[in-house]
Specification:
Oligomer: single chain
Helix content: over 70%
Number of strands: 0
Structural class: mainly alpha
Mean pLDDT: 92
Order of helices and strands: HH
Strand content: under 5%
Radius of gyration: 14 Å
Length: about 55
């Protein structure tokens, strides 16, 4: 039996990105971590964009 994770919505993807960026702002000494959080936030925003495009079709 295969269990699937619930589908993410565009709004949830944007919330994930916002959470990551807010956390990155709190990091003041760990530049690699800040950069990684920024990259992950960009990935979540790309997912949100793809989901929004899919809804338009």
């Amino acid at each position: 039996m295969s269990e699937h994770a619930p589908a993410v919505t565009a709004a949830e993807a944007i919330q994930h990105a916002a959470r990551l960026l807010a956390q990155a702002e709190l990091e003041v000494t760990n530049l690699p971590l800040i950069e990684r959080m920024d990259q992950l936030a960009c990935s979540w925003l790309a997912v949100a964009n793809l989901l929004n495009e899919r809804e338009r079709v």
